[in-house]
Write a structure and sequence with these properties.
single chain; about 260 residues; alpha/beta; four-stranded antiparallel β-sheet; 11 strands; about 40% helix; about 20% strand; binds 6-O-phosphono-beta-D-fructofuranose
């Protein structure tokens, strides 16, 4: 069964977790750059890992956006909610990117698939700090933010710097500066170079990277050989309790540079 697979890490998985300095790595077969079915395995592994780690009873799971997390939600089932009351909370306001990959939508999909509940965070991403001060006093928003910080688990993606800069509508000059400085990864609004050095930061509302360390279970979901440098770069900042769910495409690349 899948749960035994998760308990018993393979040598590759142990090597990968060790190299990245995190608690656990799960490697699914294939390379998502070429094989869409990889996401099915990722979804199953994420569901099983959550089932293994989450306590019974009430649980809050914060979900970030991106296409990988969106696809990872697709194969969730009522199994996870059987002895639990799950609340999926969006970790970010809308990003101005397509609806399917916004965290609000993904939280909704996960809730629908498991039979849990969801809570949205409906905030524009780019507001003045004056407007924000007023917005975060709204009881619904204040409640969502408090749930985010009291989460039992977080599920997030790791993006390619260039792609995320485009998706987040950064202007051409900022984008070429990012490229010049060697940015390879983006997560939580931070851009990192190959060695994990901070290149730039786009301030965001919602869960911050600095606060991730306080969340008991953190799942980073990123696959495909192309994402190997981004995974390595981000992992310099990942809290120790992170579980990475990835595929052979990415992990072979990371382990090659052992
Ligand atoms: O938008 C949230 C996010 O998790 C980003 O922090 C990350 O860079 C991105 O999604 C990953 O998106 P994708 O899975 O589509 O590459």
């Amino acid at each position: 069964p899948l749960i035994d697979r998760i308990f018993n890490a393979s040598n590759f998985e142990k090597d990968l977790a060790k190299k990245l300095g995190i608690e656990r790595a799960i490697i699914v077969p294939g390379n998502s750059d070429r094989q869409e079915r990889v996401f099915e395995h990722v979804s199953e592994q994420l569901e099983s890992a959550l089932d293994l780690l989450l306590p019974l009873g009430k649980n809050i799971i914060t979900v970030l956006g991106g296409s990988t997390v969106a696809k990872a939600a697709e194969h969730f089932s009522p199994k996870l909610n059987r002895y639990r009351e799950l609340l999926f909370v969006a970790g970010r306001g809308a990003l101005g990117e397509s609806v399917e990959i916004q965290s609000n939508t993904i939280a909704q999909v996960m809730a629908a698939k498991t039979g849990g509940k969801h809570q949205g965070l409906y905030l524009p991403e780019n507001v003045s700090s004056e407007a924000l001060d007023i917005l975060i006093k709204d009881p619904n928003i204040a409640n969502a933010i408090s749930n985010i910080y009291n989460s039992d688990a977080v599920v997030h993606g790791i993006g390619l710097a260039d792609e995320m800069a485009k998706r987040r509508d950064l202007d051409v000059i900022t984008r070429s500066k990012l490229r010049e400085k060697g940015a390879v990864a983006e997560s939580f609004g931070y851009f990192f170079d190959h060695q994990g050095r901070l290149i730039d930061r786009v301030p965001r509302i919602g869960l911050q990277l600095e606060d991730l360390g306080k969340i008991p279970h953190v799942f980073a979901i990123a696959t495909g050989a192309e994402k190997a440098p981004a995974i390595e770069a981000y992992m310099h900042h990942a809290p120790k309790q992170t579980w990475l769910i990835t595929d052979e495409g990415a992990s072979n690349m990371v382990l090659k540079g052992k």
